[in-house]
UniProtKB/TrEMBL annotation:
The keyword Repeat does not apply. This is Phytanoyl-CoA dioxygenase. It comes from Acrasis kona. The lineage of its organism: Eukaryota, Discoba, Heterolobosea, Tetramitia, Eutetramitia. Keywords: Dioxygenase, Oxidoreductase. Transmembrane segments: none annotated.
Amino acid sequence: MLTVDEVGFFHENGFLIKENIIPLRIIEDVKMELCKYVDEMAKKLLSQGKIKNSYAHLGFYERVSEIEKEFEHFSVLLHNIAYYEMQQDGTPKSVRKVWSSPELVEAVSQLIGPKVSGHPVWNLRVKTPGQEQAVVPWHQDHSYSSRDSWDFVNITAWIPLIDATVKNGCLQVVRGGHQKKIVAQHTCCVGNTWYTSLSDETIEEELKCNLNNDVVTCEMKQGSVLFFTFHTPHRSLENTSKDIRWSIDLRFHITGEPNGSDGTEESIVLKDANKNSELQIDWDQWGKNRVKPVPDDPFTTTVSGPWMNEWPVETHNRHTLAFIKDDK
Ligand SMILES: O=C(O)CCC(=O)C(=O)O
């Protein structure tokens, strides 16, 4: 799948864009399933009187934005649904298909070795135009993980469900920012978001990168995957287009090593080094075993987690305040 040069590029630079890796029919299945999620949630909001119109006539790239004008932070609610797997069926079937697709798992095993597990966290990003909470500042993904995993290999596979461009808010990475293998000093949480953040100075001083030379803008076509390590600084740009920039990010690590949940959550084995035949992946059992902190309010639009205890909270907002409340 990956060439020797591509694997070398990844290890040297901390990221790799691989084109045409996920079959487009699988991407289409994800979009179809997400359309159903949006529809279900819109119907629930409508039946509870939280919106007046469900905008059912609008398509995948517009509908959430219109609903969001009536129900603030609808895109965050959808992000939460994916996170808490409130749909009861666990990880959506189409996302499972991407996550365990031979194309993706083989590529990951070339990057991290033959024992591949899926991480307990995956994210759905519903980046509506002009939405502050969808603009992710510079950070390393390990800033969200528990410390026991910081020295271990974890990688993210970032997968757009639309061609990702500068205009609609594609990702940027800092080339070589992973090389020191340290987690730099982050703060929390930028503006009205739940995101950890690395300052430009920290990237330059602690990670020894030069932001004038080392920033790489990752425009990508659907079907492509951006791989990067949990030590690689990255961010996403503002969506100034009229369409929603949908994406999923799936995470992987070496089976048996810490997965960043401080031992509280299980990973799922996607490739077993000792088995030649195709692995039977028991997604349903995995879902049942997982700790699911489903919030009391099914319409919750705040996001919080242990990283808010890890990093200095410089400004409070509704997300950090929700964390303080839940932590008591
Ligand atoms: O999709 C985005 O806008 C940000 C993605 C990201 O930061 C991540 O996958 O770690």
